[in-house]
Amino acid sequence: MLTELHQIITKDGIPLEGLFFKPKRKSSVAALWVSGLTGRFSDRPEWTFSVANVLNNRNIAFAIFDHRGQGTINFLRRKLKNKTKKVLSGTTFERFEHSVYDIDAVIRFLRKKGYKKIFLLGHSTGANKIAYYIWKVGKRGVAGIGLLGPLSDIPILKKNLGRKYRLAIKWAKAMVKKGKRKTFMPPSFVGGAFWSAERFLSIAKEGSREDTFPYYNPRRKFYWARKIRVPVLVLIGGKEQYADRPVQEILEAFKKQISDKFFSGKIIKGADHGFTGKEKELARTIVNWIKNTK
């Protein structure tokens, strides 16, 4: 397994660092890991190397890169032409829709290396991002998508905030309307967490583009599912600590929304949200799915 450190630049000038794991034999198949919320490529090195090793041993290249939502609050240096500008970023200020640029940049990187069959693996909020990517961009250059730990944040936020949920949404809308989208949400509304008004609306408001998995409302459709023309793998941990209902019920909701022609799903027994200690089983499941796609 050959490991390389790279920096890539997104279409809008954001530099992103990450790792690329190259299998020993020549391959045309690669998998791209898209992390959730504050996730960074360097967060869990042993976990990452373990997953990469399983994929490389089956002749599948593996890439994991940072995204503009890395960390809680960050300054990223945007490079456009001959100018460099500091940009507020991190999960607190990330604009969900801009995740398309991050994913596109890594796909271009993999294409330049000769990989023609690219699978997107989105974990947690990364799953929301690749679902949105498919809706926005289509299947161009994508052989399949894996939704790993794809939960909705809305039921949990509603439970945690209680009666303050509606007040928080109303306050955030007012700030955005006034042009103050980067204003911090009052701690009393968000339990002391750091959220800009715009980011809070994106993650907490029903019907936002980030609200990709509204299984909490049986009358709602998964807006992106109608654009699915590639295989979809849904994996949920049996001990998913952030689930607001039985994980089997969540998996069934996905199955109802995605055509049988494209859907595959599994509950990984004993796995938590991060698939901690279950990385090899996770990777083997992904490999088997990739190898069985046409």
What is the helix tally?
Answer: 9
Query: Helix/strand/pairing class, anyone?
Result: alpha/beta
Across the major sheet, the strand order is 1-2-4-3-7-8-9-10
Shape: globular
Number of structurally distinct domains: 2
Rg, Å, rounded: 19 Å
SSE order, as H and E?
Answer: EEEHEEEHEHEHHHHEHEH
Summarize the structure.
The chain has 294 residues and is of the alpha/beta class. The protein is built from nine helices and ten strands. The strands form two sheets. Strands 1-2-4-3-7-8-9-10 form an eight-stranded mixed β-sheet, sandwiched between helices.
Task: Tell me about this structure.
This protein is an alpha/beta fold and 294 residues long. It has 2 domains: 2-152 and 213-292, Rossmann fold, CATH 3.40.50.1820; 153-210, no CATH class. It contains 9 helices and 10 strands. The chain has helices at residues 45-57, 99-112, 125-137, 154-161, 164-177, 187-190, 197-204, 247-257, 279-292, and strands at 2-9, 15-22, 29-34, 61-65, 74-80, 83-89, 117-123, 144-148, 232-237, 263-268. Strand 5 (74-80) and strand 6 (83-89) form a beta hairpin. The two termini are 26 Å apart. The relative contact order is 0.13.
